[in-house]
Prior knowledge:
Largest sheet: 4 strands, antiparallel
Strand content: 15-25%
Low-confidence stretches: 27-35
Helix content: 25-40%
Strand order of the largest sheet: 1-2-7-6
Number of helices: 11
Amino acid sequence: GQQRELVLELAKKSPGQAWPGDQIIQETLFKRKSFAWHANQTLVNKDGEGDGWVTLKPGRRSDVQDPFVVSRGWLCVELEQGQTDELVQFRIVLDQKKLDEALEKVPFFSIFGADCSARFFKLFIRGDESSPILLGELGGKVVPDETLLDLTTLTREVVGHRIAGTMETVPCLEVTLVKSQESLGQWEELLRADEGVLNQPQGTLEEYEEQHLRAQREPSPDREDWTPDDWADEQKEKADAAFKEGCFRDAIVYYTRALRHTPLNERLLSNRSVGYLKIGQYQLALDDAEKARQIQPKWPKIYFRQGQALRGLRRFDDAVAAFRDGQALDPANAEWEREVTRTCEAK
């Protein structure tokens, strides 16, 4: 029989420069694994014996292991939406520079993720699922299994450019949802999204649906007489709970909201500083510690936070000085010497 060959031609980003090594394609980039069984594979049950089957829980697996690559605020620039009688489409225009930086770390299919049910939709950046790009109730029913995400480009005229007709090509993510048979036609509203909800840490789509239905049944608490301290305490409780569960990014968001009501609360600044330390954001941790120190310079704990942040920034001498300042305020605490020793060993 006849044989056919598939030939792919790729244009180099930097023509004329040789690629290092002999390998042109890195197979690990695509993370493809064979599903077929072979002689060295054995199906093992929960008792450690062979020939066992495991029942998987319904739903998509948690994304807690996904690395943080880029945030929604950095990558997403504009949102456009439209519909036909059969489809709902969202287009998210992306920042080219931030997209290129993200693609240097992970392949494009590891950047975005989506959850879709018949009436609810969530679009997010993997590794930053708690801050979704889109989240809300759809204006009708869709077919979840036919949801399509496509990373493409858009060529358009530059609005307001001094030279009329100037064009630009920008990257964008296009999301296509297929309307179900009972929801064909024009919808009055494509996605009912609350801006306040998008600015709050979110869990899975299933959890959002449950909260949405519960909110329809439960009246909102009366907050008319609340003081700034009351509002801050509400957010602090959420932050403390998230911190205990190890959700440090969520805790930072809640502490930030609490600080909007009481910006001179040194304890909230100290707590947020710890959150930044937990995720390796040492400069932000130091900024909070220094603000808290200005507000309450006689509080020993804040020198502990400051010293840890300085050590994370490899400013070892400054870290030791901060620990010594704290020790002067709390000389009975043996933890200061231990921190000084750790800092000297880290040099």
